[in-house]
Automatic annotation (TrEMBL):
InterPro entries in alphabetical order: Helix_hairpin_bin_sf, Isy1, Isy1_sf
Organism of origin: Rhynchospora pubera
Classification via Pfam families: Isy1 (PF06246)
Entry protein name: Pre-mRNA-splicing factor ISY1-like protein
Alphabetical list of PANTHER family matching this protein: PRE-MRNA-SPLICING FACTOR ISY1
Localization, UniProt: Nucleus
Keyword Nucleus: yes
Family: Belongs to the ISY1 family.
């Protein structure tokens, strides 16, 4: 049995291959301008062909070992195909087809996968993009690097602007944590204070009974406690008397320091009369001469008029 290569080289197989190529139509080239296409199906087909070419070139540009010049050429070709695809999509819309642009334009990402907006980084046209290993080329890597953040020192106004009620501890009770911690401690303090008050009241009653009955307490712990309570009460009384004496001395000292006027002061009517007389003198001095004023004064003295 002959091998496959020998079969392909046989006369009959070559004749059949030649007839098939004659029947096949010549390969059709894509129109240079999208406006030359008049058929919607043809426009859709050419757009699909452009997408396949873009996919093949994007897969090829991922190889970092192609060299700088080849990577730049591939990136230029991909951007050219993207612009051509945009023209075909506009033509499809003009022919009444689907608007592919509304589905979302391709996003541009940096080395970390973050979406960045670089409308025209290299000056080669609007919307120029970098793909695959082209992002790591010299001069291109710097475009995707974020500048270091300069930490600005806050001024006093910005510091005070962030201060609220939580800064002063007014909202510490809202989370309920402080209440859980303070609850048992508060109960314990209240219990201790109540027990201490009851003990002091009991000792005070015993001391009062002892004083009222006139009995002499025998040696022991209760008599010492009663004496201590009576001594504390006596100290409180002495302290209260001392405080009252100091307040009385301060009041007397304040009375002595009061300012006493020994000259009679004018009342409101006299003050108004003096102001009116001054206004009259000002008006007379403004509209009359000194000679006329002297004549008026002489006339008043001769007529014995005193105002």
């Amino acid at each position: 049995m002959a091998r496959n290569e020998e079969k392909a080289q046989s006369m009959l197989n070559r004749f059949i291959t030649m007839k098939q190529e004659e029947k096949r139509k010549p390969k059709e080239r894509r129109p240079y301008l999208a406006s030359e296409c008049r058929d919607l199906a043809e426009a859709d087909r050419w757009r699909s062909e452009i997408l396949r070419e873009i996919g093949a070139k994007v897969a090829e540009i991922q190889n970092e070992g192609l060299g700088e010049h080849r990577l730049r050429d591939l990136n230029d070709e991909i951007n050219k195909l993207l612009r051509e695809r945009m023209h075909w999509e506009k033509r499809i819309v003009e022919l009444g087809g689907q608007n592919y642009a509304l589905k979302g334009a391709p996003k541009m990402t940096d080395l970390d996968g973050n979406i960045v907006d670089i409308p025209n980084p290299s000056g080669r046209g609007p919307g120029y993009r970098y793909f695959g290993a082209a992002k790591k080329l010299p001069g291109v890597r710097e475009l995707f690097e974020k500048p270091p953040e300069v930490r600005k020192r806050r001024n006093r106004y910005e510091i005070y602007k962030r201060i609220d009620a939580s800064y002063y501890g007014y909202r510490d009770d809202e989370d309920g944590v402080l209440e859980k911690l303070e609850g048992p401690a508060e109960e314990e303090m209240r219990t201790q204070a109540t027990e201490e008050w009851k003990r002091i009241e009991q000792v005070r009653r015993e001391a009062l009974k002892t004083v009222q009955s006139g009995e002499v307490a025998t040696a022991g712990a209760p008599s010492i406690a009663a004496a201590q309570v009576l001594f504390e009460e006596e100290e409180d009384v002495v302290e209260e008397e001392r405080r009252l004496e100091q307040e009385r001395e301060e009041r007397e000292r304040g009375k002595e320091s009061e300012f006493v006027v020994h000259v009679p002061l004018p009342d409101e009517k006299e003050i108004e009369k003096m102001v009116l007389e001054k206004k009259k003198r000002d008006l007379l001095s403004k509209y009359t001469s000194e000679g006329l004023l002297e004549e008026q004064e002489e006339a008043k003295e001769m007529l014995n008029i005193h105002r």
